[in-house]
């Protein structure tokens, strides 16, 4: 074998002229490159932008040379999304996600050919499942898009582009070069505050006052994309036989889950996107005939006969029974079981049920020992929850727990009485406050 220095590739590289220090990429040329690659709109954000500061460490952990981010938009065919035939809507979602990934890939290839290093995380659905149920994404595309001037978050927590509305998919490209000019957020929110997303949502995840119930949306709409599969698999495991399974899961539900596994996972609703009339390209039917728009777009979604997946004891269960009695309530587990104490604390604001917390005003001090040692304060007051590191304020209930035992208790795998007798969990204060705490997080 030839010596390393004599290898043809090594010799070739050493004969190349020394590359100049990287210069800033011309913003106009970079924009043209992205549009020619298939993006419908594009914006640029510097890595040090305060608006994405909370993402900096994850971005650098994924691609250390990152100096700037390219945000791209690909628009959807909105009539496909608005139909109550969700197979049609999901086909559009899948096709659009694939398009964003292909466009991002083409842009990265073109940049690489010019000597610019670049990387694109998955568009559409996050894939870092080794971290589940903690943060499973590399980049949060929505805040980057807002910072890049591609729209603002609407009441429904989707980015609304000023022209294309919320019928878009987003992608982000990390590059190792600076850009001559960066974009800034647009000076108005395209959301027209019509609240059609509120009335269309089958689980009440979007409140008129802007509150968002993550757990309600996650449990139903993402039933076949993440931990709903865990719940389904455990239903199989807990079934005595085929007859017992069929009593728990309908034929259409089994077929739907298989379709998601064999083809692509499907959203159960996404009605908030379907009902949104905002955006220059799509607002005409709403402004021309509001009653007609509601009759043609919103009512079919509201009237659709379908199963609605809710966690027992959740705000969503109460909402569906009251607002959509013609829809079939399916009580399921969220499938979320924290694997660590940080994961447990991270999930509390996401799983919180504010209507279940009515009348509860309490401060909880947690002290964990054993495999994981940490302290935290959870404050539930006026139908809100706040999680802080360390102990702050005066505790109404103090909980000292072995970390593994606590996680087992949360997962309903450990008995509280046993844990108290073994001193694996110790409480100071009324046990009723612990019961009230659990009611706020019926996962």
Automatic annotation (TrEMBL):
Keywords: Iron, Iron-sulfur, Metal-binding. Residues 182-211 form the 4Fe-4S ferredoxin-type domain. It comes from the Bacteria. The keyword Metal-binding applies. One of its GO terms (molecular function) is iron-sulfur cluster binding. Gene3D superfamilies: 3.30.70.20, SCP2 sterol-binding domain (3.30.1050.10). PANTHER family: IRON-SULFUR CLUSTER-BINDING PROTEIN, IRON-SULFUR CLUSTER-BINDING PROTEIN-RELATED. This is 4Fe-4S ferredoxin iron-sulfur binding domain-containing protein. It comes from Gloeomargarita lithophora Alchichica-D10.
């Amino acid at each position: 074998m030839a010596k390393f220095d004599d290898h043809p590739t090594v010799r070739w590289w050493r004969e190349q002229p020394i590359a100049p220090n990287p210069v800033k990429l011309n913003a106009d040329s970079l924009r043209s490159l992205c549009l020619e690659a298939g993006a419908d709109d594009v914006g640029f954000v510097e890595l040090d932008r305060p608006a994405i500061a909370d993402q900096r460490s994850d971005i650098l952990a994924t691609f250390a040379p990152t100096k700037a981010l390219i945000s791209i938009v690909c628009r959807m065919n909105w009539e496909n999304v608005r139909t109550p035939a969700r197979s049609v809507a999901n086909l559009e979602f899948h096709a659009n996600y694939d398009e964003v990934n292909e466009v991002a890939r083409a842009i990265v290839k073109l940049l690489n050919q010019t000597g610019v290093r670049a990387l694109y995380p998955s568009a559409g659905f996050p894939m870092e499942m080794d971290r589940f149920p903690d943060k499973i994404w590399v980049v949060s595309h929505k805040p980057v898009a807002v910072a890049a001037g591609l729209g603002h978050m609407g009441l429904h927590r989707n980015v609304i582009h000023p022209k294309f509305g919320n019928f878009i998919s987003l992608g982000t490209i990390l590059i190792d070069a600076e850009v001559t000019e960066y974009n800034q957020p647009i000076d108005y929110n395209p959301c027209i505050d019509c609240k059609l997303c509120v009335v269309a949502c089958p689980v009440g995840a979007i409140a008129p006052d802007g509150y968002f119930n993550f757990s309600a949306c996650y449990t139903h709409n993402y039933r076949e994309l993440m931990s709903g599969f865990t719940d389904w698999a455990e239903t199989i495991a807990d079934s005595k036989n085929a007859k017992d399974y069929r009593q728990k899961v309908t034929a259409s539900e089994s077929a739907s889950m298989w379709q998601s596994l064999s083809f692509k996972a499907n959203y159960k609703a996404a009605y908030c996107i379907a009902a949104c009339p905002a955006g220059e390209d799509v607002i005409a039917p709403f402004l021309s005939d509001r009653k007609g728009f509601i009759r043609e777009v919103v009512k079919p979604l509201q009237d659709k006969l379908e199963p609605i997946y809710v966690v027992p004891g959740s705000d969503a269960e109460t909402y569906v029974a009251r607002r959509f009695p013609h829809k079939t309530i399916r009580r399921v587990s969220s499938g979320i079981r924290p694997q660590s104490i940080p994961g447990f604390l991270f999930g509390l604001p996401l799983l919180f049920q504010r209507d279940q917390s009515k009348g509860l005003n309490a401060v909880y001090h947690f002290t964990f020992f054993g495999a994981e040692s940490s302290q935290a304060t959870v404050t539930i007051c006026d139908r809100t929850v706040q999680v802080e590191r360390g102990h702050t304020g005066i505790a109404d209930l103090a909980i000292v727990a072995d970390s593994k035992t606590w996680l087992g208790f949360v997962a309903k795998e450990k008995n509280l009485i046993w844990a108290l007798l073994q001193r694996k969990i110790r409480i100071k204060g009324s046990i009723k406050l612990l019961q009230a705490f659990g009611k706020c997080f019926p996962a």
